[in-house]
């Protein structure tokens, strides 16, 4: 097991670890123990400028490096990440709180993005038409766009940065990452391993901090594009300010995902999947199951299975074996969740499993047990807001049409799942649901690296999503050349 030595973190600029000009810092906690594990610098706009200037300079050479050579660095990086898999997972568990099993899964997701980006020679190939008219030909070529600013949330310190920088640098851009100030440690290993893989200095940089760094990136004239992942209000703000400054922006935002359970579903499978999707990572996933819309005919059975399975969940430090449910990220987030639970009761939802009763005075971290409400309606705050916590709402519905109608009332539209064996119902669900990532008889329909992470409505602002061919298009621009040989 790794030991985290308490330290004041540094920015990573041009291949050097540098103390920022700002001497402001914030404490980083292990949410399972409440211990301070690091001090993260809260850099200012000058620190951002230093990093962007270095990245802009590095871009001039990096964009000229032949694409297969860039890919080879990513192949080497992939090997290093595989070798460091356990260590990376432990860092994630220590700074984020999720179980080691989930952290290992997160590392895998990150590695898959590196693997996808290593295929960049094929992905970046253009297209030609040898005869658009007599003696005339046309072709399209892809090029990088410049310096990319990446701004990431606390809940996936490895996977979300890996949605961004592997493809960005593979396509010839340079990158400035601002990791979440609540989980900033993993990014350090990402940078160290990039260096070991042979990435030239200045291609990948880190500036730690909070909103000043974000604003610095959004306003900097040498930043060509911004990839953002985080909560809805910040995503909207980042999208508006970035596009106002005429940058390309993709802003992946908050969520409130519905799972629909029909009467013919395999209820044992459905409830197992929903429990994993609702309480895995303490509900701190943008693809978490937040609401179960269940047909009345099977609602009592579903509710009883959900409670029974939630009662079997082991709560504790994610580093301990068999622990499924770790802490939420901070005490402030725990208090916010407890207020939502009170609000749910006040507004008339039926609390059928109260995670507040799972308190263990021996534990110092920010724990809340699995909490389940029944008879939740779309007027209630716990249905409307993204709680991002281990709280699941059950809404009883007449049939598939009413389940879809309920789901489509949400302002968010990241994922939605259906549990059924009826092909016609699946088709109707697919055609009528307003959400970008759908699951059939699975709990977390998160797409793999080669498909786009396609939130709709207030779950995404922009045109080109992260990952897949969208990711490639976001980080590149095209030249079309029309030629006459005489
Ligand atoms: P957050 O919005 O608090 O923070 C995200 C980033 O924005 C961080 O780097 C943070 O420093 C910065 N930030 C925060 N407040 C800011 C402000 N006022 N001005 C400028 N920058 C600011 O999000 P979080 O709590 O770290 O992450 C959880 C959220 O992320 C959830 O809402 C979750 O749904 C969302 N998320 C979405 C996806 C997706 O794919 N749609 C994936 C993961 C997480």
UniProtKB/TrEMBL annotation:
User: What biological processes does GO assign it?
Assistant: inositol catabolic process; L-valine catabolic process; thymine catabolic process
Q: What class of enzyme is it?
A: oxidoreductase
Report keywords, A-Z: NAD, Oxidoreductase
Organism superkingdom? Bacteria
Per its UniProt record, what InterPro entries does this chain match? Ald_DH/histidinol_DH (IPR016161), Ald_DH_C (IPR016163), Ald_DH_CS_CYS (IPR016160), Ald_DH_N (IPR016162), Aldehyde_DH_dom (IPR015590), MeMal-semiAld_DH (IPR010061), MSDH_GmP_bac (IPR023510)
Residues annotated as binding NAD(+) are 154, 178, 181-182, 386
Q: Report the GO molecular function annotations.
A: malonate-semialdehyde dehydrogenase (acetylating) activity; methylmalonate-semialdehyde dehydrogenase (acylating, NAD) activity
Pathway(s) the chain acts in: Polyol metabolism; myo-inositol degradation into acetyl-CoA; acetyl-CoA from myo-inositol: step 7/7
Show the Pfam families listed in the entry.
Aldedh
**Which reaction(s) does its UniProt entry say it catalyses?**
2-methyl-3-oxopropanoate + NAD(+) + CoA + H2O = propanoyl-CoA + hydrogencarbonate + NADH + H(+); 3-oxopropanoate + NAD(+) + CoA + H2O = hydrogencarbonate + acetyl-CoA + NADH + H(+)
What EC number(s) does the entry state?
1.2.1.27
What does the record give as the function of this protein?
A: Catalyzes the oxidation of malonate semialdehyde (MSA) and methylmalonate semialdehyde (MMSA) into acetyl-CoA and propanoyl-CoA, respectively. Is involved in a myo-inositol catabolic pathway. Bicarbonate, and not CO2, is the end-product of the enzymatic reaction.
State whether it acts alone or in a complex, and with which partners, per the record.
Homotetramer.
Q: Family per UniProt?
A: Belongs to the aldehyde dehydrogenase family. IolA subfamily.
Name used for this protein in its record: Malonate-semialdehyde dehydrogenase
Q: Which organism is it from?
A: Salinibacillus xinjiangensis
Classification of source organism: Bacteria, Bacillati, Bacillota, Bacilli, Bacillales
């Amino acid at each position: 097991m790794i030991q985290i030595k308490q330290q004041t973190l540094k920015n990573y600029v041009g291949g050097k670890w540098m103390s920022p000009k700002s001497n402001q810092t914030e404490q980083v906690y292990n949410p399972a123990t409440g211990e301070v594990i690091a001090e993260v610098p809260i850099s200012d706009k000058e620190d951002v400028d230093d990093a962007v200037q270095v990245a802009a300079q590095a871009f001039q050479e990096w964009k000229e490096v032949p694409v297969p050579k860039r890919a080879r660095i990513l192949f080497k990086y992939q090997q290093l990440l595989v070798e460091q898999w356990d260590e990376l997972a432990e860092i994630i568990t220590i700074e984020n709180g999720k179980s080691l099993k989930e952290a290992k899964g997160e590392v895998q997701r990150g590695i898959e993005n590196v693997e996808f980006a290593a295929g960049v020679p094929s992905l970046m190939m253009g297209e030609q038409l040898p005869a658009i008219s007599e003696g005339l030909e046309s072709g399209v070529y892809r090029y990088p766009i410049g310096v990319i600013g990446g701004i990431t949330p606390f809940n996936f310190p490895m996977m979300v940065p890996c949605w961004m920088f592997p493809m960005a640098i593979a396509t010839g851009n340079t990158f400035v990452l601002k990791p979440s100030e609540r989980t900033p440690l993993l990014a350090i290993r990402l940078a160290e391993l990039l260096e070991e893989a042979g990435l030239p200095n200045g291609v990948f940089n880190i500036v730690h901090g909070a909103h000043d760094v974000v604003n610095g990136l959004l306003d900097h004239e040498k930043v060509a594009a911004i990839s953002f992942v985080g909560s809805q209000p910040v995503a909207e703000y980042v999208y508006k300010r970035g596009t106002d400054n005429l940058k390309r922006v993709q802003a992946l935002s908050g969520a409130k995902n519905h799972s629909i359970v029909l009467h013919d579903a395999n209820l044992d499978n459905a409830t197992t999947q929903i429990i994993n999707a609702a309480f895995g990572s303490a509900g701190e996933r943008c693809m978490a199951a937040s609401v179960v819309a269940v047909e009345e005919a099977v609602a009592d059975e579903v509710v009883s299975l959900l409670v029974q399975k939630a009662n079997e969940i082991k709560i504790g430090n994610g580093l301990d074996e068999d622990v499924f449910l770790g802490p939420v990220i901070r005490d402030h987030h725990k208090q916010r969740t407890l207020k939502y639970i009170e609000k749910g009761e006040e507004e008339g939802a039926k609390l059928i499993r109260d995670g507040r009763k799972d308190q263990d005075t021996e534990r110092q971290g920010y724990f809340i047990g699995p909490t389940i409400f029944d008879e939740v309606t779309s007027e209630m705050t716990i249905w409307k807001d993204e709680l991002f916590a281990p709280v699941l709402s059950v809404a009883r519905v007449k049939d598939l049409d009413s389940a879809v109608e309920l789901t489509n009332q949400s302002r968010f539209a990241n994922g939605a799942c259906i549990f059924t064996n009826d092909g016609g119902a699946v088709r109707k669900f697919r055609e009528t649901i307003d959400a970008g990532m759908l699951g059939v008889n699975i709990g977390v329909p998160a797409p793999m690296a080669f498909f786009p992470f396609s939130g709709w409505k207030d779950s995404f602002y922009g045109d080109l999503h992260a990952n897949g061919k969208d990711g490639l298009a976001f980080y590149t621009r095209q030249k079309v050349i029309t030629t006459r040989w005489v």
